[in-house]
Design brief:
heterodimer, A: 5 helices, B: mainly alpha, 5 helices, elongated
């Protein structure tokens, strides 16, 4: 229902919560040097771990909020506090992950970055009409 | 009232199945559709749970307002998510670009939160404890699914 949808949207674990498309395979394909490849995947996995910690915290806050929402009276301040806690944790996670993303980027050339994050899809290549 | 509610639920389920395919490749359409279906379900629950017409009509009006708030925010947030993915792809994007976008997203979520809490307060003031419990108990199952996605 609408209330559940709104809470799910604010607390969502989907694209809006994370900034991490899964690019492990792309890194492995784009970086031929095995040692560098391993190092970059490690950096990327650190970002995923950070995101995972946040997802667990998010679920826990959402469960609490769900119980509070069922109370007709006296729930407002508790709900405000839950939203505020979530936003603080989201901000903290975002700062950490961003910093890790920039570290990852500094270890790659622009061509490598494009190969990982903007891979050319076969469908978009011009067709050979001959 | 129960058969009517069940009938509406089946209609919504059918509508969901029909539109699911069409929305698969259009996140904005899919999100808008989800809001509309959730709104229709809330209307059905209010119709079933609230016995007197004055309170029911007032609650349905508040539910419409909630739908509008949610629809607007859902699309705004989706646009910002796309913007975020584009920033990640762009090797030249700066930390400031991300911070500015992060602040805009936070402002949008804060506005949505405030609007929600205000409308929720109005809704609870028009219901009894038992009615509110009935309304939110149906949210619990959905939150378990949506909240974990």
């Amino acid at each position: 229902m609408l209330i559940a949808l709104l809470l799910a949207m604010l607390f969502g674990g989907g694209p809006q919560a994370g900034i991490l498309p899964d690019v492990t395979k792309e890194i492995e394909q784009a970086i031929p040097d095995k040692a560098r490849q391993k190092e970059l995947v490690k950096l990327y996995e650190k970002m995923l771990e950070e995101d995972q910690v946040f997802q667990e915290e998010r679920k826990s806050i959402l469960e609490d909020l769900q119980k509070v929402n069922a109370q007709r009276e006296g729930a407002l301040s508790e709900m405000e506090a839950s939203f505020s806690t979530l936003e603080s944790k989201r901000r903290l996670k975002r700062e950490t992950v961003l910093s890790q993303l920039f570290t990852l980027r500094s270890e790659m050339t622009e061509e490598e970055w494009d190969a990982v994050y903007n891979p050319v899809e076969e469908d978009s290549l011009p067709k050979n009409r001959m | 009232m129960k058969p009517l509610y069940n009938f509406l639920r089946y209609c919504l389920l059918f509508a969901s199945l029909v539109t699911a395919t069409a929305c698969r490749h259009n996140p904005a359409r899919a999100r808008e559709q989800r809001v509309m279906e959730s709104a229709a379900e809330l209307d059905a629950v209010l119709t079933q749970v609230i016995p007197d017409s004055d309170r029911r009509n007032n609650l349905l009006t508040l539910a419409d307002q909630l739908e509008l708030v949610l629809k607007t925010s859902a699309l705004d947030l989706l646009e910002m998510e796309v913007e975020q993915q584009n920033l990640i792809r762009d090797y030249q994007s700066t930390k400031k670009d991300f911070e500015d976008l992060g602040n805009r997203m936070q402002a949008q979520r804060t506005k949505l939160t405030n609007d929600f809490l205000e409308l929720r307060q109005k809704m609870t003031s028009l219901t009894t404890d038992a009615e509110w419990e009935e309304i939110t108990s149906r949210d619990e199952a959905l939150l378990k699914i949506w909240g974990n996605n």
